[in-house]
Specification:
The protein is mainly beta and 157 residues long. It has a single domain (3-144), classed as Jelly Rolls (Sandwich), CATH 2.60.120. It is built from two helices and eleven strands. The strands form two sheets. Strands 1, 3, 4, 6, 9 and 11 form a six-stranded antiparallel sheet that branches. A five-stranded antiparallel sheet has the order 2-5-10-7-8, with no helix packed on it. A hairpin with a 4-residue loop joins strand 7 (79-83) and strand 8. The relative contact order is 0.29.
């Protein structure tokens, strides 16, 4: 089955994380490059992103997962949530100082819901300890819809 890995194309709303390094928030989370480019937020901060639409040949979505590669400034850091398009899903409490990949399932397997949902991060607690994010993406596994016109027929006389 085809798998598509999509990175954000625009900053969504709310937009309260800060750019730590990189040319933009979208660029900062577009690859796993550690502290070369990243965004960060502490208690009460929320960051949403807009993603591209799924390819036109998507039939049935088998799975859709949101990934965030994050770290804290301290071992006993804040609670980090991944917003899955509908609600915040707690993925870690006090994740530590090394970047780790966290994930949460998308709330829906409907291509229309996946296309329209803004996805992101939210931070609570942690007494002002920031969480850093260097990579954020959506991975979708799907079946391909059969073409409605698989080819043309020709008659020769």
């Amino acid at each position: 089955m085809p798998t598509v890995k999509d990175y954000p194309i625009l900053v969504g709303s709310p937009d309260t994380f800060e750019l730590g390094a990189g040319s933009s928030k979208v660029q900062a989370v577009s690859q796993n490059d550690g502290d070369t480019s990243y965004i960060f937020g502490a208690n009460g901060r929320i960051q949403r992103f807009v993603f591209p639409n799924l390819p036109g040949d998507v039939g049935t979505v088998q799975s859709c997962t949101i990934f965030a590669r994050t770290r804290d400034e301290a071992v006993a850091g804040p609670n980090m949530f991944i917003f899955n398009g509908l609600s915040d899903v707690l993925v870690v409490t006090g994740q530590g100082v090394a970047y780790q990949l966290r994930s949460a399932p998308h709330f829906s397997l409907s291509p229309a819901s996946i296309n329209s949902a803004q996805l992101g991060l939210a931070i609570t607690a942690g007494a002002g300890i920031p969480t850093y994010c260097t990579e954020f993406y959506r991975e979708t596994v799907y079946t391909v819809v059969a073409p409605t016109n698989p080819g043309a027929s020709f008659m020769m006389f």
